[in-house]
Amino acid sequence: MAPPIGTTYHEGELAVQAKMGVAHTAAFRSGHQKTFLSKPVQEFFAERPFVMIAAHDAEGSMWCSMVATSDGTPCLSDISADSLVLKASTLRPNDALSGALVVGMEVGLIGIDFVTRSRVRVNCTVASALANGDVELAVEICASHCPQYITQRFWRADAAGTSGEAKGDEASARLTGPRGAPARFRPNARTVSSLEDVRGLIDGSDTFFIGSRYGRKPGDGDARHGADASNRCGSPGFVRVTGRDTLAFDNYNGNQMYSTLGNIVKDPRVGLTFLDWSTGDAVQVSGTAVIDFAPAGQGKEDGGERVLQVVTVRVTSVVVRVPEAVPGTWTKAQSRPLVLSRKVQEAEGTASFYLEAPPNTPPLAPFKSGQHMPVLVGGLNRSYSLSGPPGAKYYRISVKNIGKVSSALHELEEGEEVESLPPAGSFGPASLKPGSDVDAVVLVAAGVGITPMVSMAHAATMPTAVVHAVRNGKQWPFRGELQEISARAGVPVRLRAFLSGPTEQDLAAAEATAGEAEWKIAAKRVGVEDLLEIAKDLGASRPLFCFCGPLPFSAPLQAALEDAGIPAANIKSESFG
Ligand SMILES: Cc1cc2nc3c(=O)[nH]c(=O)nc-3n(C[C@H](O)[C@H](O)[C@H](O)COP(=O)(O)OP(=O)(O)OC[C@H]3O[C@@H](n4cnc5c(N)ncnc54)[C@H](O)[C@@H]3O)c2cc1C
């Protein structure tokens, strides 16, 4: 199937996507890139007390900086579809980008909510510099990204006047020299260090930020140019100092757009920032990067993540230490063991796992429908949507057996434990802002993508349709449970199934007349006309469409809905399965 949308990738990104054999998927994902900030994205940025930006300095070196308010108030204002004002005046005087943002400069910006693990990236240009040192940014491209590797952290603003004191329960300051000697530290002055001085911080990092650019060169046929800010997360060791002036990081399978690596192919200049979450200090590094596309199966022997590329950065500029760049108090989410109290086979290859708090331990934290839960198995971190009803005494995840972690889960016996992190995410009607005008919900899933939708159906508070695309009746999880939900729901919950490879038995079921609370089955692939019809049947004038499934399933339908006049803000998606 051809991707539905003209791509907005530059030739560096396209080259890496082609090299990695993911050009087709990436082309589908290009529809996630918008040339404006949708309403939900505007709301997301309106609540951010800090964002990371990437830009170059007067010498052309790339840097990444945190722009933050210390009191938890938003660091962006005057947000519209086309522009936003960045409180660049809050950059510390010794920050590498302090005073560097001039009119016409390309700026990459990324907002991350470390609690919900949501992140949105925007490529901008400085439209105007305000008298107070803030800058107005014009939006060029915006994309929301998958939460997969974001290390969850909780944050709270410091009380006035306490900024800079020892913070939170993150590990104690790691800005130490090679033998643990306290790092030299001169507040409010640019501090120049060697990489060796900050090895402890870098080698122990589970998160860092990277700025890169896709600069236009003379004779370059590519019209696009700009800067990108992004993040990388992993277990400590995934980024490490490898020499006197080199560091390297492992790159895992991500959203397959390859923005950062594509930029590096075009222009090797990068800026990396490491945060000491305990002291609030930031370390900024600037250099040039090279990509090793064949890291010889790293991570396989030790059971770790599959490393697709290793990026080595040769540090060409000074290392800048910015004291108190990171405001507030940070607490890294702690994992806890949960007991597998029940395991249920839902369909061919898919099982549900009911997880409960062990006896004499705190009860489970509440969750909202549409949220996911990271689980840790053999050093690997995988997220699974919660498929059970919010408020139950268990968390239920439902997993298709396809790889390392999913197969390990399928092998578990009842009574065994699973290490898990707190639920996170914001997907579906439970995440609508108060006062939203959405009047019905159409949940569209393919295969195991039904999992968050089951939880949403349990929690339905407005007319809802569940649309499930499956191959046949054997690979159709939650068929019975959703009928039970529909039969007793306080609002209409309609069920529609689309079977792409029906058996004789399925065809007979499709012929039968379905009751109000039963599945209406069609032996065909779901089309956009079906979705619009289903929304109309619900009596919806402002429906919210939520998609969950593989990109080649969701992306064409999402694009067709937009073409049919459904606002992008009313179309949400998560992709797996
Ligand atoms: C927010 C969110 C919610 C999710 N919810 C669910 C859910 O409810 N249910 C669910 O089942 N999944 C869900 N997922 C997907 C889940 O997180 C995992 O990605 C999935 O279970 C696969 O992990 P794994 O370790 O089993 O597979 P992996 O071992 O990571 O393998 C993944 C894929 O890569 C292939 N692969 C692995 N190694 C190689 C190699 N060396 N060369 C080539 N290909 C290889 C595998 O065949 C497989 O197809 C969700 C993901 C996210 C981000």
From TrEMBL:
<dbReference type="GO" id="GO:0051213">
    <property type="term" value="F:dioxygenase activity"/>
</dbReference>
<dbReference type="InterPro" id="IPR001433">
    <property type="entry name" value="OxRdtase_FAD/NAD-bd"/>
</dbReference>
<dbReference type="Pfam" id="PF00175">
    <property type="entry name" value="NAD_binding_1"/>
</dbReference>
<dbReference type="InterPro" id="IPR017927">
    <property type="entry name" value="FAD-bd_FR_type"/>
</dbReference>
<keyword id="KW-0560">Oxidoreductase</keyword>
<dbReference type="InterPro" id="IPR012349">
    <property type="entry name" value="Split_barrel_FMN-bd"/>
</dbReference>
<dbReference type="InterPro" id="IPR039261">
    <property type="entry name" value="FNR_nucleotide-bd"/>
</dbReference>
<feature type="domain" description="FAD-binding FR-type">
    <location>
        <begin position="333"/>
        <end position="430"/>
    </location>
</feature>
<keyword id="KW-0223">Dioxygenase</keyword>
<dbReference type="InterPro" id="IPR017938">
    <property type="entry name" value="Riboflavin_synthase-like_b-brl"/>
</dbReference>
<protein>
    <submittedName>
        <fullName>Putative phthalate dioxygenase reductase</fullName>
    </submittedName>
</protein>
<feature type="region of interest" description="Disordered">
    <location>
        <begin position="163"/>
        <end position="182"/>
    </location>
</feature>
